[in-house]
User: Fold this.
Amino acid sequence: MAEMGLLKDLLQDELIIEEIRATEKTDVLREFARLLKSAGRIASEEELVRVLTERELLGSTAIGQGVAIPHGRLNGIPEMILAFGRSSRGVEFQSQDAKPVYLFFLIVTPDDQPGEHLKALARISRIVKNPDLRADLMRASHRQDIQRLLYEEDGKYPQQTLPQK
Assistant:
């Protein structure tokens, strides 16, 4: 099992949406599911949307400051999937601060690795605390720029490993 490492180990170029077209919460989840299906990373769009929607019903994954980290566990995927999307318009996502979400990090983990998403959530939550990074991500013009900004910010923090069970 791969240890949750740096974002560069997870976030691939083809899993970055430069401009999310969706304007509604569920449609954002569908757009990510479509991307992962077309990239050959998941078998069923519908199953991923169901898992993510069920998670959102427990409480919004929007963490405030224009950021949301929708996540869920999916059967039949070999490893964690991380995708990123940006909405210049912003999407109402029932955020803790009642503000729209502009930056989305989608985390999908295999069903048999329940703790992995927690490490990814912690890592992403840490890097998006930087207001300069959030502003730079909104201004970035290409997915390669988005990727580079995320890698650079993530690289400022040591890799964390949890004790083995």
